[in-house]
Structure formats: C-alpha cells, structure tokens
Amino acid sequence: MIEVEELDVVDDADRVLARASRARIHDEYLIHRSVMFFVLDEEDGVFVNQRSALKPMYPSFWSIAFGGHVQAGETYEEAVAREVEEETGLRDRVFSITSFQKRTADERENVKVYGVRAREELRLFADEIEQGRFVTMAELNEMLGHFDFLPETPTLLKTLTEYTARRL
User: Does 47 map to a domain?
Assistant: First the structure.
C-alpha cells in the first residue's frame, strides 16, 4: 500500500484547520507549512543547488536554500531537523532566522527559515539535487543573472543578506 503524505491545512495566522493529502493541498491551493534552510560555510558562503530535472515543480531550477513540507502533526523544528538530514546528510544544529508567507501562483505556504553551518561535506541525493556548491554573495549575484532560480529567491536573498549583515 502506498502511504499518502498528509500535511496540516492552516490559515494566514498559522492555525491548524484540518489535514489533507499533499495532492489535495496543491490541487485546491490550500495554505500549508514548510521549512527552508540555508547551508552556510564558516565564511558565510551559501550552498546553491540545482534541483533535479525529475522534480515535478521547477525542475532544474536553482535555489539558495533547501526545504520541504511540514508533515501533519509535526512542528517546524522537527521538520527542519528531518529535512536537513534527508537533503544534505548534515546533523549539525540548526538556528532560526525568520519566517514569511509564500504566496505564488503554484503554492501558498507559511514558511519558517533556518540556517545550518556545514562542518562536513554534504551528501546530496541525485533524485533531489543535480549539483551544488558554496558561493560568495558576489558569485551568487552573478549567478542570478544567468540561471533560473525558484520564485521565492528574492525573499530568501533578502533574508540571507540581512542575516549575513547582522553577523558582520
């Protein structure tokens, strides 16, 4: 039997209203929760990654963050710890950065953003990520003009820029 992924349906204030399958949530454009996280090196370089060509949404697009859905009944903190290990193989402590509401033509999500410092090499999974590397902010800005990035990139870039500026 195939297990159906269930997510919490929430409102703008992030109150849980119901549970629904991931397919139903996307088909009916329901608000749900997700986490995103930056992988940073010791010099605040960010790991940029290209999504797999097999991904149903935005195949082969580049991203400055990783992320995933918060499962039904799961907290944001549980979800980000799971996603960090699943998507990068890292088990380092995550730290909270901010939150925002993602409202695109494809999806409506309440998003919490985290960071993690990579103290070891990332283990990427080919079915999720084609390639990736650490870049400086200058290198990232150069890439933005040449590659297709996910729609939430401007919001995430602002968040990353503000976070790194606070650390200087």
Answer: yes
- Number of structural domains (the chain) is 1
Which range of residues forms the domain containing residue 86?
6-167
CA distances from 40 to 5, 7, 44, 71, 76 (A): 29, 28, 5, 25, 20
- Two structure tokens written together for 154: 């401007």
List residues bridging with 135 in a β-sheet. 46
Q: Give the pLDDT confidence of 104-126 residue by residue, as tens digits.
A: 888 999 999 999 999 999 999 88
pTM: 0.91
Q: Is residue 1 part of a domain?
A: no
Residue whose C-alpha is closest to residue 41's, from 136, 129, 123? 136
